[in-house]
Amino acid sequence: MLPEEPVSDGRTFLNPSVWFVDQDGYRVVFQRHEPIYRIAANDQMHQRLVAVMLRQSRLATQEEICRAFGHSVALQCGFSSADRMRLIFLRLTGKPPSAFRPGLNSATAPLLSPSR
Description:
Blueprint: E1 11-15, E2 18-23, E3 26-31, E4 34-40, H1 44-56, H2 62-69, H3 73-80, H4 82-93, H5 109-112
Antiparallel strand pairs: 1-2, 2-3, 3-4
């Protein structure tokens, strides 16, 4: 005989193929039974980054992410802006994104400047 109500196993569904489980101080995000992200439950910045990555990879819609993660669409849009992504990158790595771009040395700078 089937139970009258579904048994809760702690999963929070974004959609039928993506869900997460909060357990032992971590949030683990799954896609079709495969873990794709593991985040400390108290790390809000990393959770925001995962929300952006789920949206950009088209694994979940903005509304699904907002409903499951408990924030508004306006706040989610703010996470996706370039300035917010730079801030997230800075907080996670300790370095601004520009620190990973190679600089121009004195020999290559004249080649890229407009001729007069």
